[in-house]
Amino acid sequence: MFLVLQVMSDLYLPTVTSNIIDKGIAQNNISYIWQEGFKMILVSFLGVAAAGGNIFFAATQSMKMGQKIRDDMFDKVTHFSEADMNRFGAASLDTRTTNDVVQIQNVMVQILRMMLMAPFMLIGASTMAFVKSPRLTIIFLITLPVIALIVGVLMYYVVPLFKVLQKKTDRINLIFGETLTGVRTIRSFNQDHYENRRFDAANKDFANTGIRAFTIVSFIIPIVTIVFSFINVAIIWFGGQMVSNQSLAVGNLVAFMTYSGQILFSFMMLSMIFVFLPRASASATRINEVLSVKDTITDPAIPVDFPVQQSGTLSFEHVYFRYSNAEQQTLQDINFSAHTGQTVAIIGGTGSGKSTLINLIPRLFDPESGVVKINGVPVNQLTQHDLHEQISINQQQAILFAGTIRENMHYAKPDATDDEIWYALTIAQATEFITTENGGLDYHVEQNGDNFSGGQKQRLAIARTILKPAEIYIFDDSFSALDFETDAKLRMAPKE
User: Fold this and answer.
1) What is the pTM of this model?
2) What is the pLDDT of residue 62?
3) CA neighbours closer than 13 Å in the CB half-sphere of residue 443
4) Which InterPro entries match (predicted)?
5) Nearest 5 degrees, angle CA 419-CA 422-CA 424?
6) CA 91 to CA 169: how far, in whole Å?
């Protein structure tokens, strides 16, 4: 609505100017000039107000759309299986959720502001120009197809470059993220110069691709400007002759030139859209690749309630598992049962499939064949929520979140009291470095727990696992960074 009002105001003003020249100035009619002048001021204010409304809603809707896409992306990624996470990679998912969404937001603003306005303006200005002088309009019929052809050829070459540019953004984020995470390792092996060269190579590659893409794009506006400069010369040349032989009024020539400028402006707006569209198109494709992934781990159509028993069991029955595209199976014919109160140790060499076996219990993967059961019910017949409620797992890598120790503990049990948290920390042998002098449970935890040692992070992660009330507790190589004494105490504490 605001856009239409703005375009109508812009199209009406040249007609008012034409009337002032032909009926006011030419006939020395001062009162008519004042009358049309006030009308021009009123229409101008209306156009400005409409433009403001259009800009406001364009910005509001583009931001809301970006918010919606990021919410959907985040929700989708949190439900990814391990295979899906490995398929995309963390760096690429970061880029798709941030940079790619920004590209979509930018083009959304341009669409609501320019792309919708340009056709209205182009059609309206062309119609009004034809009304003022049908003969001069022939100039546009010759030149506009030429401009459209030139822009189309340039876009043919630039679209693939923008698609490549987004992939190279992934590469930069990957290297930068690895450097931030592994900065201590890089320094300890004195590989600063190697990492600088690696990032510089990726950065130059990105820059060179961007230069090629935007160099091609930069030709659009100069070409359009040159063509329209020739159009203006032709309008003045032929229009002047028509004025001299009195077949065209001076006011109509001025109005025609104004409409010509609006047509030029419309093409400029469309050209700017063509700058944003290819990159946004590539970003939209990358976003849809994430959103269109079908969940490989899904809840059953008719789920079974979790069977509560006094003596629970966890059993693997002829379980086989193979990673996608792997030639050999990681797990073959796994059979065992664990009962309430028992501790089962799974021992094997590096890469033998211990973590893979563990991940089958909470359904981070599904087996190729065979079945994993809890209390006699296959885990794939339970909802993931009900299944995860009964399992407390401590992964191989101790993950802590930025915040406080209390907030990290609440991940396991949101309503846990301070006494319960301290009890879990005591079992995990973590109270020695968490004292009230250091802030206690309000002690600040940096991202990834970087302000703690490896052993301290492991003990905090173990405390969080113990804090959660569950039927099954899983510890995946969770004691590797502990000294022998702490390891022994920690193993004995849960039994006691």
Assistant:
1) 0.70
2) 92
3) 18
4) AAA+_ATPase, ABC1_TM_dom, ABC1_TM_sf, ABC_transporter-like_ATP-bd, ABC_transporter-like_CS, P-loop_NTPase, Type_1_exporter
5) 110
6) 9
Contact 130, 137 (CB under 8 A): yes
Q: What's the token pair of residue 53? A: 């409304």
Partners of 91 in beta bridges: none
Distance CA(126)–CA(395), nearest Å, equals: 67
Tokens of 288: 């849809």
φ, ψ of residue 475 in degrees (nearest 5) = -125, 110
Q: Indicate the helix (H) or strand (E) that contains 172.
A: helix 138-181
Q: Within 13 Å, how many C-alpha atoms sit on residue 366's CB side?
A: 16
Between 15 and 417, the more confident residue is 417
Per the listing, tokens 């797992």 go with 393
pLDDT band per the 50, 70, 90 thresholds, residue 447: confident
DSSP 8-state class, residue 136: T
Length of the chain: 496
Element (H, E) at 44: helix 30-78
> E strands of 291-387, at which residues?
313-321, 331-339, 369-374, 377-378
Cα 32–Cα 36–Cα 37 angle in degrees, nearest 5: 110
Query: To the nearest whole number, what is the mean pLDDT of the chain?
Result: 86
